[in-house]
TrEMBL record:
Organism: Tigheibacillus halophilus
NCBIfam families: HMG-CoA-S_prok
Acyltransferase recorded as keyword: yes
Residue span(s) of domain Hydroxymethylglutaryl-coenzyme A synthase C-terminal: 175-249, 264-354
Protein's name in the database: Hydroxymethylglutaryl-CoA synthase
One Gene Ontology MF term: hydroxymethylglutaryl-CoA synthase activity
Key words, A-Z: Acyltransferase, Transferase
Amino acid sequence: MNIGIDKMGFYSPHLYVDMNELAISRDVDPGKFTVGIGQEKMAVAPLTQDPVSLAANAALEILDETDQEKIDLVIVGTESGVDHSKSIATYIHPLLGLNPQARAFEIKQACYGATAGLQMAKGHIALHPDSKVLVIGTDIARYGLRSSGEVTQGAGAVAMLISREPRVLRLEEHHAYHTEDIMDFWRPTYAENAFVDGKFSNEQYISFFNRVWEQYKAASHLKLAEYEAICFHMPYTKMGLKALRTILEETDEANRDRLLANYEVSKTFNKNIGNIYTASLYLSLLSLLENQEGLPAGARIGMYSYGSGAVGEFFSGILQPDYQKQLHIQRHADLFASRKEISVTEYEEIFQQMLPADGSKADLAINEDPADIVLAGIEHHVRQYVNKKQ
Ligand code: HMG
């Protein structure tokens, strides 16, 4: 049975900081942020956007009535969940008008969460061919003001509808994955911001990639030349390129040029959003599909997922005929075009804003946020969401 991605949705908050401005205010040469790290703009989430609303907004744009009825499994991958107990998957259920006869849960393994969800969805469809699964990666990446990871923050979500006879990307049967207990990046339950061993995390990202790439080659007998493009988890856009370069000698110049050109396109959205952890790999896929004209149906796309801590996985998919019809190219172009630049001072103020944690009531200025689904406030420790369209 053919199983894979049938639809893809994306959402990111309407505010951003320019990386040149951030560099100047941090007394760093802007070239380090824009070339050395490869980031141009960083999405900033106001209090009215949290990982729940981001996830719901990303899914809202792709679901029709049949999907709402047929989805019987909702999996949200995140590492910035808003509750130790209640899952984002349950919060978004009513916001999206989904059929209550569904399983819903949240899944965590750093940036690997959405990939774990995608592979579970594949197994679920194999057992229940008529059902559909909603898989979402949603995150707000926080390293802290003036930290070395600050330039790699971001906020956003990607939603994917998984079904049989998918119209975007059919997942191939082979897998290669690897797990090790390492401390390259983590966030203890008491911490608002992540802890990271930056250089070690870079090394591990590449080492895991090399390992699963070799495993995948052995399992699939596929050569690098047989890939139209490889999409990478993108904590920052230079990272995937460093990994890709380690295998380029396996093919000839023409193939190398194609893979490098497609890598450039696959980072178009990511360099303007920042790291969105669980959704970054899928944002890079969306970036490739929506910005590269002429990708042929039948083309093979490789996918490298890495979640610190750490789990790495390589898998691949085949582009389906007329996949472009399933995309929302104009809507996403409008989303980027309508964003508002804020100053570094405004970003710092937003970064430090927190919801009350003592049970008191807060009403947020939802009219300042153009998103359909917003966090309107909190009362008695209960987050209040509004879908302006309902
Ligand atoms: P840093 O120490 O600030 O930067 O940390 P650097 O000194 O290593 O410089 C970065 C690059 O800029 C270097 O290039 C410099 O040469 C270059 P490279 O050698 O790497 O090719 N550079 C310049 N280029 C042009 N003009 C200039 C200039 N100056 C310097 N003037 C680091 C950078 C990424 C380590 C830091 O930002 C960090 O810790 N980020 C967070 C961790 C991270 O993103 N790790 C990635 C792998 S782990 C992962 O992907 C998982 C993750 O997503 C979490 C999860 O799974 O949940 C993070």
